[in-house]
Amino acid sequence: MSDRPYTMLIMASVAFLGASNVVGDDFEIDWWTVDGGGDMWGYGGDYELSGTIGQPDVGAVLTGGDFALTGGFWFVPAGPSTCVGDLNCDGQVDFGDINPFVLYLSNYAAWQATYEGCNPLNGDINGDGTYGWGSFGDINPFVACLANNPLPIPCTPSPGGCDTP
Q1: Model confidence over 15-24: pLDDT tens digits?
Q2: Structurally, how many domains does the chain consist of?
Q3: 56 with 106, same domain?
Q4: Least CB-packed of 63, 89, 99, 125 within 10 Å?
Q5: Is 125 helix (H, G, I), strand (E, B) or coil?
Q6: Coil, helix or strand for 69?
Q7: In this model, does residue 62 exceed pLDDT 90?
Q8: Contact indicator for 61, 74 with CB cutoff of 8 Å
Q9: 0.85 exceeded by the pTM?
Q10: Are 8 and 62 in a shared domain?
């Protein structure tokens, strides 16, 4: 049996370790745990970090250089609920949403100030991911929603509003 495969494996390992030291000179993880749970992510500048929930190192603050990582359970605050077509955020879609919809399309900043806390996705009637000023592709679906459904359209149960099948 030849020693050649083992020699090649050792050489490849040494080359890899040497290359990883060159690439990773600025960063070092000298302590870690393998934990289970879901996936969460964080972004900052050119960096992205993902981790899991339920670490046994809850509350520990891990630091290195300019970076700090706090272990523990991650909580995502609930944002405003979405009810497609409810542009005045009164919990239903009806003719009372027409003027707020016009304001939403024509002066998005004024709509945000007038209906503070109202989810901007409520105006994305066609679901194309654009909303606010210039989202004129939402006009026909909004009119169709009002014209083709008995009003008012409740926002609950979810999905509600113009999303109602």
Answers
A1: 555 554 455 4
A2: 2
A3: no
A4: 63
A5: coil
A6: strand
A7: no
A8: no
A9: no
A10: yes
Q: Give the separation between CA 139 and CA 134, rounded to whole angstroms.
A: 11
Q: Are residues 8 and 59 in the same domain?
A: yes
Dihedral (CA of 7, 8, 9, 15) sign:
positive
- Supply 12's token pair: 């490849």
- The closest of 73, 93, 75 to 85, measured between CA atoms, is 93
The parent domain of residue 100 ranges over: 92-163
Q: Are 158 and 97 within one domain?
A: yes
What mean pLDDT is predicted for residues 43-59?
57
What are the structure tokens assigned to 9, written together?
């494996």
Q: How confident is the model at residue 66 (pLDDT cuts 50, 70, 90)?
A: confident
Side chain identity at residue 130, one-letter code: T
Angle between helices 98-106 and 139-147 (to 10 degrees): 180
> Are 33 and 52 contacting, i.e. CB atoms less than 8 angstroms apart?
no
